[in-house]
Amino acid sequence: MVKALILIADGTEEMEFTIAYDTLIRAGIECTSAFIPRGLSPYGSSDTSPPLAVCSRQVKILPDITLDPLSAGPEKYDALIIPGGMGGAVTMAESTEVQNLVRSYYNHPEKRTIGMICAGSKVAITAKLPGQPITSHPSVQSEFPEHFEYKEQNVVVSAVPGKATLVTSRGPGTAFPFVFTLIELLCGKDKRDEVVGPMIFPSGTTGYPF
Amino acid sequence: MVKALILIADGTEEMEFTIAYDTLIRAGIECTSAFIPRGLSPYGSSDTSPPLAVCSRQVKILPDITLDPLSAGPEKYDALIIPGGMGGAVTMAESTEVQNLVRSYYNHPEKRTIGMICAGSKVAITAKLPGQPITSHPSVQSEFPEHFEYKEQNVVVSAVPGKATLVTSRGPGTAFPFVFTLIELLCGKDKRDEVVGPMIFPSGTTGYPF
Predict the structure, then answer these.
(1) Per-residue pLDDT tens for A144-167?
(2) Which residue has the higher pLDDT, B14 or A207?
(3) Which is more confidently placed, A15 or B43?
(4) Which has the least CB within 10 A, A123, A187, B12, B110?
(5) Tell me: the pLDDT tens digits for B165-197?
């Protein structure tokens, strides 16, 4: 079974989080949401029961776990997903544990998949991923160093040989094409089509082509 | 300030709930989510602190309140929103309190707005709303009595003179056009355009025209 780890923090964009989690579940992917605390790290504590995440527009979501970096790596999950929402994205981008986690997925010999959407793409900068095609919410575009090849596309798929496939996207409005691209990469085009059908998209809006 | 009451229950479609709540907040609408318990009614109990709602794909959301029918009426809120997800929609459709609530919004002399999406449209049947144009998830289409004028459209706006405006829609894939239609009705087209912009929709997918 394909497994995905989806990060969440206070200030996470609740639509981007929920669209990713729910739609991946519809594709038969086992999803685990992991809370990223702000500031001082609680790691080393034995208490990993997560608090409620208060999202960007005050929807309160109970994550499945609090992130334990020792058991959240690319040996356990096929994909790592980082949603936007400025508050949550800043917490994730500044977290040493998240930076290390992203690098471990990026460099894992069994090619993993990393998804970042909206301000979540900031983590590609702080994790010091090498330059490659990328996109993000326009409000953080100016933060990307020049070695990234910034694109104003709904979804950007970057496949550096021997590294994780990096899928980036722009905002809540591109969250469906983002997650369908992840499903196609992880489970194939037939599964993508199977999931799209019962969700009843207006014609022309299912993310083909991204 | 425009105020909306959004229902939630175990089995509610978490994308439809979250897209509605979050996007209405972006429009400056004050949102309150109200939990609908399944089966035996707790009303009369003084404990209105809500439990976690376990949604259709296992996202766990803490509602703002448990529904108190005495303070949830059209005197307090401008709009009543009913998301889909079969489990949650059945709970709502079978709830006498929800049926009464929908009728009170429908008949209130200061024209209110009622939104139902996906299987949430089932409540229009059990609340015995009069026949009018309507849509829903295709999986429940056959349940609508013939006096409803069923339409296979992304969003259906029904404005019976002197009654609430009833806005219905089809599924997660039409949730954005659904909520933007509600925003346009409640706050005007300029506000809709203002909210759409920073959400970065692919061109042609913002719900114009529905």
Answers:
(1) 999 999 999 999 999 999 999 999
(2) B14
(3) A15
(4) B110
(5) 999 999 999 999 999 999 999 999 999 999 999
pTM of the model: 0.95
ipTM above 0.85, yes or no: yes
Helix (H, G, I), strand (E, B) or coil at A26: helix
Query: Which among B17, B174, B181, B143 is positioned nearest to B84, based on CA atoms?
Result: B17
User: A22 vs B206: CB contact, 8 Å cut-off?
Assistant: no
Nearest to A117 by CA among A1, A43, A193, A23: A23
Dmax (CA) of chain A = 50
Report yes or no: A152 and A171 within 8 Å, Cβ to Cβ.
no
Instruction: Compute φ and ψ for A149, nearest 5 degrees.
Output: -100, 85
Query: For residues B81 and B36, is the Cβ–Cβ distance under 8 A?
Result: no
Closest by CA position to A112, among listed A84, A74, A151: A74
Does the distance separating the beta carbons of B202 and A173 come in below 8 Å?
yes
Its sign, for the CA torsion A145, A150, A152, A158, is: negative
**What CA–CA distance (Å, rounded) separates A154 from A172?**
11
